[in-house]
Design brief:
Length: 282
């Protein structure tokens, strides 16, 4: 059964495809335009300063109903008057609440506070994953670089504690590709992950997406086939279908689109797939 968060992802998969194919991942598509790295530290510091917990919380509250918004505000008011010993518990409550309502940006900030107080691998990995969800799902081009940098920092701290973590290396690799002037460093990390764990779903999924972005649809097909062989993922089937389509493999594309429609069971995606199949059969 598809959970609520997966449905949200599936409903927006067409939009995500459009975003993916319209963005220029520096160095992956146009390496000669790749900027220098001499001022990387300054750039990162400037990026992080462009986003704050107050900003992302205010934006996230706009999508909450009155009851949930009041719960958040009450906890925030309690936090303002809390003692230092009381703050970690409130940070956790706020982080969990924001995560439960699928608002990863404010959730990430609160988990960052938790990891700062209780620095362990699990807390930093959770922080990195939430910042990743945040930068991948925001439409705010000003805050996205800051969220990417925060994800990078969190994964680096997780790896300082557990250098062998494939999850942290995968997250770090994705972040390097998504928001730094040196995406090939991220690709290399992901390739190292799949060398160690050839069936790694997250690494293969993202290598597939990056292959699509660079027009290497044959490689993308192999990555997505690895994913769907292990997990009935409608998103992966959709990307596999698009990769087949871009290679001119119409029958394979139709099969994959139909599988995506079947697994997603979402009217919006279903209508898109029906139109796409009609086009492919012409």
């Amino acid at each position: 059964m598809i959970n609520k968060k997966q449905i949200i992802v599936v409903v927006s998969v067409i939009l995500l495809m459009a975003v993916l194919l319209s963005l220029d991942i520096k160095g992956l598509v146009k390496p000669k335009e790749q900027p220098g790295t001499a001022n990387a530290a300054t750039t990162e510091a400037a990026a992080v300063s462009n986003v704050s917990l107050e900003q992302v919380s205010a934006t996230a509250k706009e999508d909450l109903n009155a009851n949930l918004a009041k719960q958040v505000s009450d906890l925030e008011n309690s936090l303002k008057s809390a003692s230092e010993s009381e703050k970690p518990a409130l940070h956790k409550k706020l982080g969990e609440l924001w995560n439960d309502v699928n608002k990863p940006a404010p959730a990430a900030f609160y988990y960052e506070f938790i990891a700062g107080k209780e620095s362990n691998y699990e807390n930093w990995l959770k922080t990195g994953d939430l910042f990743t969800d945040a930068y991948q799902n925001t439409s705010d081009s000003l805050s996205q670089p800051a969220l990417v940098q925060k994800a990078i920092t969190a994964y680096q701290k997780a790896l300082e504690i557990n250098a062998k973590s494939l999850d942290a290396r995968t997250g770090l690799g994705i972040a390097y590709v998504s928001g730094t002037p040196n995406p090939m460093q991220g690709i290399q990390l992901l390739l190292e992950v799949v060398k160690e764990d050839p069936q790694n779903i997250k690494a293969n999924m993202n290598l597939g997406l990056f292959s699509m972005k660079s027009g290497q649809f044959d490689k993308a097909v192999n990555r997505f086939k690895t994913v769907v062989a292990q997990k009935p993922d409608p998103e992966a089937w959709f990307y596999l279908a698009s990769s087949y389509e871009n290679q001119g493999l119409k029958e394979d594309a139709i099969m994959a689109y139909l599988k995506s429609k079947e697994l997603a069971a979402d009217p919006s995606l279903g209508q898109f797939v029906d139109r796409k199949i009609k086009e492919l059969k012409q």
